[in-house]
Amino acid sequence: MKILVITTGGTICSxxxxxxxxxxxxxxxxxxxxxxxxxxxxxxxxLDVSDLSFDIVSPINVLSENMTIEAWNVLLAALRDVDYxxxxxxxxxxxxxxxxxxxxxxxxxxxxxxxxxxxVSGNRIITDPExxxxxxxxxxxxxxxVISINKPENESLESNVFPADNxxxxxRNMNGISYVHRAALLEECADYSEDFFSAGMIxxxxxxxxxxxxxxxxxxxxxxxxxxxxEALDNDHFExxxxxxxxxxxxxDVLYIKPYVGINYxxxxxxxxxxxxxxxxxxxxxxxxxxxxxxxLHLLKRCKDAGIPMYIYPCNKDSYRYxxxxxxxxxxxxxxxxxxxxxxxxxxxxxxxxxxxxx
Length: 359
What we know:
- 30% of the residues lie in helices and 16% in strands.
- It has helices spanning 28-43, 69-80, 99-109, 133-150, 204-214, 229-235, 296-306, 323-330, 341-352, and strands at 2-7, 14-16, 24-26, 53-57, 89-93, 117-120, 162-163, 167-172, 178-182, 202-203, 222-223, 254-257, 275-279, 310-313, 334-335.
- The chain starts with a strand and ends in a 7-residue tail after the last helix.
């Protein structure tokens, strides 16, 4: 079984030394051989490690808090050039701080690949006894092995029947339990926490049991119809081939705003912005009391004057309870619902560059 490992940096690829004040910094070259060896050792009772090999590609090496659109584009370029038919699966090593943003982005772009994609992080550097890095990496290998064994013989991209979701995150929380997450639904790690959560998250052992017994992923849905790029972004479907194989160049023209008490929308520049994603409070609301600079209606008017669409999330246009939401919708805000804010942000990023998808 051959697996491609893409390293991006992060804690899982970091060490601490006296030179940097015993603070973590990326040191992929030193960490990766140790990570692979320790993972192989832990896998000896589960599979034939003599038949296990890894190809390594390191397009970027940054702490994940330093991730940028430009770095994402370098990563996407490397992923576009991969011959996925050579591998049983792909493991992407990534830091935890922006994992919740890279994961849903890749879930949009990598649907329909002929092999699973699993993102792996570490809460601590691998020399820390509390680190979950080795276990997370080993569990990703176990997942790929099981998916490879149970892959239907007639699963082919040529048949226009694709797995609708093949991108995962596997991560052990501080309670000692490992979970498998759909990458599209991964939520941000909370402040002062090292745990990840998502809608539909499932214990690793339960995922393995279902995959082994049923011979299919618990989250794998096959679709036969082709749909447009717009529908792909809205409905988690796609038109083959996978979008990652197209010439996608993301741009930093999506402005994301979270509401807070005291917000002043005049302090937000719209220069170079192609669309605004405005988050809402848990009741699908934002300040819409008047047209002052503290009201989202004020920003919406500025967007309309500039010809910029303003999306509000999460908002179900057929089910809301407050007059403030009604005011935003009647003024022209575009409601988005479903998934997570980071998935919605990822879709808008891709949507903004969809003009280049057919090039």
